Each structure stands twice: as structure tokens, then as C-alpha cells.
Amino acid sequence: MPSRKFADGEVVMGRWPGSVLYYEVQVTSYDDVAHLYTVKYKDGTELALKESDIRSQSSFKHRKSQSSSSSPSRRSSSRSRSRSRSPGRPAKGRRRSASQSREHKDDKKKTIQETSLALVVLVLLKPSENNTKRYNGEPESTEKNDTSCIILEQKLKPDLEIKRVLEQYSLRSRKDDKKSEEIFSEKKTFVAVKPIEKVPSKTKELEFGGRIGTFMLIFLLPATVFYLLSMCKQDDPSLLNFPPLPALESLWEWRVFGVFLLWFFLQAVFYLLPVGKVVEGLPLSNGRKLQYRINGFYAFILTAAAIGVLLYFQFELHYLYDHFMQFAVSAAAFSLALSIYLYVRSLKAPEEELAPGGNSGYFIYDFFTGHELNPRIGSFDLKYFCELRPGLIGWVVINLAMLLAEMKIHNLSMPSLSMILVNSFQLLYVVDALWNEEAILTTMDITHDGFGFMLAFGDLVWVPFVYSLQAFYLVGHPTTITWPVAAAITVLNCVGYYIFRSANSQKNNFRRNPADPKLANLKFIPTATGKGLLVTGWWGFVRHPNYLGDIIMALAWSLPCGFNHILPYFYVIYFICLLVHREARDEHHCKQKYGLAWERYCQRVPYRIFPYIY
């Protein structure tokens, strides 16, 4: 991790984006991922600036003293040159008047330059909405006339007001800038920045209820999974009909645990195969980029072939249904052991490899959220592997096992229409994620969150065993739907998928190449980070259109289960809560990263997920 030069609370000079002017600002925070300082100006404006756009106050004061100390020598030199002129020069009194006249002209010229500089400051400090229009290719309207009026008005103000403005923002005239050590426009100068000692980046804002909340979640999440699975096994899965507690010896079987381990390591072998392209992830805090092999879709094809071979040799895949609870317990035990290993190894990890959101110094919190950002064994990335492979592909295998179990238990020659819809919709979702595997490298799970209990349990237990809840429910509670109803549900799922995929593709294409002619119709708000915030297309409709598509698809997955019980709709309720939480995290992160530009974006796009509602 490169040394952080400016500490929180330090008063420095920050360059206003798009200009060469520096103002006095205070550092409020630092983003280890984006390498941006959040600074606050005197007028309350907050912006995210790069380190190269920030200077220490000592360098400015040093230049000011140099400029003032050089003035007497210049005047002395001018007088010396005046005395060395020819004997035919005018009288002494007239020479003094001429010298005073020259100094008066210099002062007048300096005042005019300071006036012009102050006018630029006043214009820059009041950015109008027309700036957004110009960036987006819209006409400038009457802004030029307004600016001319401001200039005319300021030129008539007394010199005292100009001096007050210059002192308030610690500015100097253009004349002094020519002799400074800054790089302004085409003038090459140098700035001596005093290095500041490296400050450890600790997680200040704790999520999930802090230490107490994360401690409770370590027990609450497994309990929720076991409760839902036990409810689905009952004849009456109503919420008030609590299932009896199973015997502890019935929850564990070593053979089941061995099958789970075989599945995990089989996916690890597929991950290590030298097939698929190798891409680089986003830059880390130390500037290094990790490499990832994109072969998730190939792993899915190989898994499908392996399952096909097992079915050909008449392997009873519904064994998963018969021992479903034991598989869930085995996965939970493995995820807990993996989390302990991850935390222990993170204690020896260099500071630049720790997660920005999991470096609080509190054991429980860091254990839950993940202390190390990208734990690797050689080139094997544990977090990236678990994110898509064992759990996501396992979700599809579990759904297939439930389909076969339904046919066997109810003596069906073909699965029910409800089961076919659930399997088809969720298969499309998984295949889409694996086909667009590279897009996951820009998500917060990879770039911000560490790999701890939260992601380990979520990837290996929550995803395969909770996301397959509808298929598990339909085995014990078959639901008959008509073809028109099935067609309507299919249309709903297609609408959700279209919003989800087109919104993500629009964002990814814009990030990859904003100058693509295909994206010429998209308008955006520029930010101090160099990136743009889309204000047209799906991202001008709501701030998180991909979340909207997710929720619509989740509803379509639950509708085939009917309305007899609310249990199949737990996934919809959970998904809404999850996305609202993620949306709040995204809002906070984007506000810190983009500053004033994010506030302007929120004004342009007021709705977060649901149009006209939220």
C-alpha cells in the first residue's frame, strides 16, 4: 500500500476539479480502494480528490514568502539600474516621480490580475446546472451572459473586497504564479511535499449492528436456514406451526460430509484447469492487479457432463433430497472451519492486503465481515472461487435433485409445470452469471468486502440451500397451475431478466469504453474521479435498475408455488431486504467517492429502486 500523505482532519490546499486553482480544504476521509481523499471546502462543499490534486499548506506559504522577499531586491535592482543611466537624465525629483509612477502601474496591473483571478473563483464556486447540460451535449443557454454580468459587477467592487476573497481561499495573483513552483497550465514547476508518516487504515464505520450485531448473526444465519428447511418438511408449513427440534445425531452423517467435500474439491479442480481467458481485476490499494481465470461456464459444462454420467449409471440423485438437512449442516460446518482458517491466516497478511471494510481491530466483527481482501493459496483465489462455483452451480444440481425427487415420490412420468418453471428460471439466472463471470470482478464483494464468515456461509450454505427453497417446497407441497398462468409468470420473469441484464450491460459497456459510438445517446455527469454517472437509459430511470430486475425475477420464481403459504415467498422478502441494504451501502460509498457529483445525480434520478415509490 502506498504511503498515505494526508491524514484525516489535516488542513491542506485542494485543486478545484477542471481548474488550476487551489483552495483551503480539510481532509475528512480516505478511500483505500479508489485512492481518493474526501475533502471539505470552506463553503461546505465535499469532493473526492486524487492525491495529485492536493498540496500541503507549507508549500504554498513557502512560495508566498519567496515571492515577497524577492520584491525588494527587484525594486533595489531597478533603482540601481536607474542610477547608472547617462548624465543627461532628468533631475532627481523627477526620477523619484517616474519610479513611483512605475510602481503605481505595477500595483494597478497586479490589482487587475487579482480581480480577474477572484472572478474566476466566484464563478467556479457556484457551478450551475448548465454545467451538466454542456457535458451532456445540451446548449449552454444564457450562462455566458450571466458570467459577463458577474465580471462587470466584480470589476466595480473595491480592492478591499477582492483582497478579502483572495485571503479567504489563500490565492495569489497570476503574476506570482509565474514564479511559483506549481504546475499551472503549461508552466512547469515543482512542489516539495513533506512526507507524512503512514497511517493504518482502520474500518471506522461498522455495519450489521457492529460487534453485537455480527456476533448474533453468526448464530442467527444458520438457525434461519435450518428453520426454513424444517418448515418445508412439514405438512402444514405455516409460520406459527414451529417444527419439532430434530435429534442432534440425525443432523450429521460422515458419508454426507464426504460427498460435500468431494463436490467442493471437484469444483476446485475445474477451477484450476487451464481453459478460458485470464483477465486482470481492478487495481488494489498498492496499485497491483490480480489475475483471474474466467472459466466458470466451462466448469458448469463439465459438471453437467459429470451429472449426466451419474444418471446414466442410475445414480439416485434424489439422495440429496433425502439427506438435505444433513448436507446443509455439513456445508455450515465446512464454512465455519474455512472462516476460522481465513481469519488465522489474515493475521499474518500485510496491511495492504487487508479489506477496507474488515479491518476494525475487533475480532468478532473482522471474523464475520472478513479481514483479508483476497486470500490466495498460490494462484488459487479462495473468495473468487467460492463466489460462483460450489454454491451457485450446486444450486442448479439441488434443483435438479428436487425435480427427480418429485417425480419419484408422486409417481410422475414428467415433472410438474410449477417445478419446470422454477428450474428453468433459476437455471437461466445461474447460466447468465457464469457466462458474464468477468463482471463480478467490479462488484463490492470482490473489491471491498473481505472473505470471512459472511461470504463463506453465504456462498456455501445460504445460496444453494435457501435459493433452492421453492423447488424443495414443491416436492412436499405440489401446486398445479394452468398454462395461461404459466405464460404470464414466464413473461414476468423475462421482463425482470431483461431489465437486469440490459442495465448491467449498459453500465459495464460504459465503464469499458465511454467513447463507444453505440453509447453516444447516453448522457452523464462527470466526476472528480474521471468517471461518469449515467443519467439516461436504465440508470436515468432509477439509481439501481439491476436491483429492480432482481426483485421482479425473485417474484416470478415464487409464484409457481401458489398462495397457500407464505414460506415460498421468504426469498422475495429476503431479497428485497438484502437489496435495500446493499443499496444503502452503495449510496454511502458513492457519496464518499463522487461527492457533489453524486448529489447532482440524486437530484436528476430521485428514485432508488422502485420508480415513483422508493
Brief summary:
This protein is of the alpha+beta class and 614 residues long. The chain has helices at residues 57-83, 92-124, 129-135, 143-155, 159-168, 174-177, 210-233, 254-272, 296-312, 319-322, 324-346, 363-369, 382-409, 417-435, 444-447, 453-466, 469-476, 483-512, 545-558, 570-594, 596-604, and strands at 11-15, 22-31, 36-41, 46-50, 54-55, 277-280, 291-294, 376-377, 380-381, 524-526, 532-534.
Molecular structure report:
With 614 residues, the protein is α+β, with helices and mostly antiparallel strands. The chain has three domains: 10-58, Roll (SH3 type barrels), CATH 2.30.30; 207-479, no CATH class; 481-613, no CATH class. It has 21 helices and eleven strands. The chain has helices at 57-83, 92-124, 129-135, 143-155, 159-168, 174-177, 210-233, 254-272, 296-312, 319-322, 324-346, 363-369, 382-409, 417-435, 444-447, 453-466, 469-476, 483-512, 545-558, 570-594, 596-604; strands spanning 11-15, 22-31, 36-41, 46-50, 54-55, 277-280, 291-294, 376-377, 380-381, 524-526, 532-534. Strand 1 (11-15) and strand 2 (22-31) form a beta hairpin. The protein is globular and about 85 Å long.
